[in-house]
Design a protein that fits this description.
Helices cover 40% and strands 0% of the residues. The protein is mostly helical. The longest helix is centred in the last third of the chain and has 22 residues.
C-alpha cells in the first residue's frame, strides 16, 4: 500500500500576512559595512567551540601573540654564513 502524500498545512494565523513583493535583499548590509564589520562564517565544528564573537577574538589574539613571539625565535640570522672547516 502506498503512503499518502500530505501537503503541508497553512498553520499561520490570519494576522500574519507577509508581502514579499516589497522585500529588499541586503537592506541592512550597507549599515554593517559602514561600521566596518567583517562577517565571517565558521564551520559547524569550529562554531561549537566558540559561543560568541568575544571568545573567537580572544583565541585569535592569543594565536597572533604566539605567532609573534615564536617568529623571533625562528627567524634566520642576517649574518652571512661562514665555513669554519674550509
Amino acid at each position: 500500500m502506498r503512503a499518502k502524500h500530505q501537503e503541508p498545512g497553512d498553520d499561520l494565523r490570519p494576522q500574519y500576512e507577509f508581502d514579499y513583493s516589497e522585500a529588499v535583499r541586503g537592506k541592512y548590509a550597507g549599515r554593517l559595512l559602514a561600521k566596518g564589520a567583517n562577517v565571517v562564517v565558521l564551520d559547524p565544528d569550529i562554531a561549537e567551540a566558540f559561543h560568541d564573537s568575544a571568545s573567537v577574538n580572544t583565541a585569535l589574539r592569543s594565536l597572533l601573540d604566539l605567532t609573534r613571539s615564536t617568529q623571533r625565535l625562528t627567524q634566520r640570522s642576517s649574518r652571512p654564513e661562514t665555513n669554519a672547516g674550509g
